[in-house]
Structures are given as C-alpha cells and as structure tokens.
Amino acid sequence: MFSRLSRSQALAVLGVPVVALLATAGFAPLPFSVAQPGLTANVLGENKGTQVITITGAPVRKTSGQLRMTTIEATSPDTHVDLPDVIDSWFSTEQAVMPRDSVYPSGDSVKEIEQYNRAQMKESQDEATRAALHYLDREDDDIKVTLELADVGGPSAGLLFSLGIVDKLNGDGSGGDLTGGRVIAGTGTIDANGTVGAVGGVPLKTQAARRDGATVFLVPKDECSDARAELPDGLRLIPVTTLRSAVDALVSLENGKGQVPSC
After folding, report:
1. How many CA atoms, within 13 angstroms, populate the side-chain half-sphere of residue 104?
2. Residue 218: helix, strand or coil by DSSP?
C-alpha cells in the first residue's frame, strides 16, 4: 500500500512484505524497489491540518498521548533501480530492497496503483470502524466515524485506527487514556472481528516510530522476529493478535497491573 507524496517523490508503503534481495548481475534496470522509513501520523490528532478521526452521535473524550500509524516509503514503479542501488540498500540498515511486483500490481500504471491503494485504505477504515464499535458493543448505536489520512493508502493502519476510535469513545474503560500519555506507535491490518494481520516492512516502521518519539510499538505477533531484527534503542515491542489483546496490553502498561506481553 502506498502514500502518494508527489510524482518525483517516493510512495509510502504500509502493508507490503519487505524482502532484501541481491541482484545477481547487470546494470540494466532491475525489477526491484528500494524502501526506507516513511511518515508516521498521530491518529488521535490532526494530519496536514485535518482531524484524522471525527466521531459524531456520541460523546468524545479529550485524549492525551499519541497513537502513531507508521509507513515505509518505496521508490515509484517507474524509478530506475540498478545493481549499485541494490547493493547499497543491502548493506544499509535504513533501506531495504524488495521485488517491485511485491510492491506494485504488475502491469498497472501509477494512476491505477494509486486508485487501488485508495480503495484498500477505504476498506481498511470501514473494517477498523466496525471492529472498534463491535469491541465496545456499540455497533447498533447511531455513531458515525469519519477517518481522514491524506496521501496514504493501503490497509495496515487498521489497528491504529481502531485503537484511536476506542480511545476517543471509551479510553481505558476507567476514565484514563489508552496511551497513558505515551507516544505509542504500531502497525497491523484489522478485520471487522478485530483480528490483527501481518503487514511487512516492520524493521523500517520501527525506525520511523522511534524517530518520531515513540517508546512503544504494537506489532502483529507473527512479525515479532522481524521487529526484533533491527529494533531501535528505547523502543518496546508489544505483540498483538486482536484489537482486544492490544487494548488489554495498553491498559496493563498504563496501570501497572497484569502482564504486558513482549516479543
């Protein structure tokens, strides 16, 4: 999934598996993309002057702390990537190489790719809303949730969207914030039942999270080993499998009661 920055800039990738591969030979254009840590955005606040989560039909809490969704940025599908680019990225901890076809649907134009990723983002937002309202047992209430995240596409902000909705409507369930005033970051798809799915690109996303002040990172449990591989200093990993497990872990972290899982 992608975040369109401009025609001359990178596209942000939210949910594509990042596989570092060495090219075997040649200086002709190679079928790879180069990725690096991308933008992050606090879903509890504004992004580019627009509130990310807007809720009507129910009282909304004033929150503290941050819940930051994370991305990676990849070279656009028409960028020339050659052997020196691949080798440089292979030895860099701040870049990764991935097969271009694993990032962009083969044969699609840049415009078609953008449309596809916008559609994925819309579906992700709808699923995140349903998951949050189902978790709160409020799916039958007259609550409308609008999610806005400019220039970002794809499904892997789903978990953070759901957590943001839960925090704004219910907090920790006892009057406090899910964040405990911390900067919490993370990644993961989510379905309407609250199941969290893997997204890829986690080592680059942890770097983006720490760069932007996060001290805790929520990671799909199946990607724990990837997240540990190049974990920045000062960033604590919390594995999650469902929206409920993510909420429970954050509540335990906030109040110091119960066990907080770790990778």
Report:
1. 28
2. strand
What does DSSP assign to residue 45? S
Q: Are strands 183-186 and 66-74 parallel, antiparallel or unpaired?
A: parallel
Walk me through the domains of the chain, giving residue ranges and CATH numbers. 11-255 (3.30.230)
Model pLDDT for residues 31-56, shown as the tens digit of each residue: 677 788 999 999 999 999 999 999 99
Buried b (16+ CB within 10 A) or exposed e, 83-116: bebbeebeeeeebbbbbbebbbeeeeeeeebbeb
- Per the structure block, which two tokens stand in for 198? 């893997």
The encoded tokens of residue 128 equal 């995140």
For residue 42, give Cα distances in angstroms to 111, 145, 156, 217. Answer: 27, 16, 14, 13
95-146 confidence digits (pLDDT tens): 777 666 666 665 567 777 777 777 878 888 999 999 999 999 999 999 999 9
- pTM, two decimal places: 0.82
Rg of the Cα atoms in the chain: 18
Q: Which two tokens stand for residue 24?
A: 């075997």
